[in-house]
Design a protein that fits this description.
The protein is an alpha+beta fold. It folds into two domains: 51-266, Orthogonal Bundle (Transferase(Phosphotransferase), domain 1); 287-323, no CATH class. Helices cover 34% and strands 10% of the residues. It contains eleven helices and nine strands. It has helices spanning 10-21, 53-59, 66-85, 136-139, 148-163, 173-184, 214-221, 227-236, 247-251, 275-284, 309-314, and strands at residues 30-35, 42-46, 51-52, 88-89, 98-100, 106-108, 115-116, 296-299, 319-322. A four-stranded mixed sheet has the order 2-1-9-8, covered by helices on one side. Strands 3-5-6 form a three-stranded antiparallel sheet. Helix 5 packs across helix 8 (227-236) and helix 7 (214-221) packs across helix 8 (227-236). Pfam families: Pkinase. Its EC number is 2.7.11.22.
Amino acid sequence: MDMRQDGFPVTALREIAILQRARHTNIVDLREVLTGTSPNEVVLVMEFLEHDLKTLQENIHDPFAPSEVKTLLKQLTSALSFLHTNSILHRDLKTSNILLSNRGHLKIADFGMARYIPPPQSPLTQLVVTLWYRAPELLLGTENYGTEIDMWSLGCIFAELLLREPILQGKNEVDQLSKIFDLCGLPTDKSWPEFWRLPNAKSLKIPRDAGTKATGQIRTKFPLLDSVGVDLLSSLLSLNPEHRLTAEEVLQHSYFQVFPKPKPMELFPTFPSKAGQEKRRRRSSPNAPKRGDAKAVHDIDFSGIFANREEEQAGAGFQLRVA
C-alpha cells in the first residue's frame, strides 16, 4: 500500500468491516489483521480451506453428482441470503471465489468488491463482477442495482457446476451480451420493459418484437436437468432483474425437495489437495515466521471513514495486530 497521500485504503477498510460483520457458516472467517515489518504491509488472515471450486472442477475426473450440486448450491445460497438480509452485496461471485473444505463445507471468500446496499436510486459503479458472471443490466450500463446481480452470478455458478465450465465465456462486453441473448433470448417490451431505458441499450440493434423463451434454450443446453431444475436456473438467469428469485426464494424452491435430495456434508467426497505440499515448503524456509511473533495489539479509531452508520458500527471493533 502507498499510504502517503490517502492513508489506509477505504476499500480495504470496507472489506474488513464487512468480513467482521458477515459471521456465517458459509462465509470465510476473518481471524485477524496483521502488519509486517513495515506498516505499509497489511495481511488479512483467513481460515484455511483445501480447495476453490474453479480449480477443483478443472482437476477432478468426474463431475459433481446431482445430489452434490444441490448441497453446494444450497450452502452458497444460504450465505447469499445472510448477506442480502444484512444489506450486503458481494458483487464478485465466481467459482474461484468459492472455497470448499475436504468435509464438503462451502464458504464464500474475496469481499474486495463487496459493499453495503445504499438507499434507493443511489448511483453505483457498473464496473463490478467478473465479465463471465456479470448480469445483463450491468453490461447495459445501469447505475441502480441491488441483490439481483448476485443472483445472476449464482445462476451462472449453478450452470457451471452442471457443465464443469463457465456457461457464458464472452471475449468482451458486447460478446458477453451476445452470448447471454443466445441463451436467454432477446428482450422484448413484455419480458423486460425497462430494457430500452438503460444507457447502452440504444446502441444495440435489436428488433423490439423479437424474442425467445429462456426456458427452451436452457432445456436444450441442459438435457439432463429435470423440470424443477430448469425452472430454477431459468428464474436465476432471467434477463429482467425483477423476475429473478431472491436467495430466500431459492432456498424454498422445490428443486431441493425432489429426488435426489442434497447429499449430507459428512458423505461428501474428499479430494487430494496440493496445499499440504506448499505448507511443508513454507515450514522448511529459514525465513518463515515463527509462531507467537505477534507482539502488540493497537486499537484504531475508524470513526468518520465509513459511508453510513451501519458500516461504522461494523468496523467499531477492528483491531490491528502488529507482528
